[in-house]
Amino acid sequence: MIGAYLPILLLVVVALGFGLCSLVFSSLIGPKKPSKVKLQPYESGCEPVGTARERYSIKFYLIAMMFILFDIEAVFLYPWAILYKKLGVFGLVEMGLFIVILFVGYIYVWKKGALEWE
After folding, report:
1. Would you say 69 and 115 are in contact if contact means Cβ atoms under 8 Å apart?
2. What is the reported pTM?
């Protein structure tokens, strides 16, 4: 029984060994000439302005999470569209219910003012 897992264990050991050897050799062999310019954060060719610890509004995070949520829910429409004929009326009713729940969530978020960017 354990012999069946030996190839997987060997793969994990080889992968970890390769990763560790790469890190060790790059730190030993790689050039080390730090300067003020090299240690400066790169911002698309622009000079950095301000600190990296700038605070963002919570609205930014809320809108980002809602975008991800609604985007992921929209992804469920593709498998349904492909299997539409196999699912029949049951699939149609279930997807209709799914879209209604999604729409109710969207209306709730809209009424709460979470989509208002101030």
Report:
1. no
2. 0.48
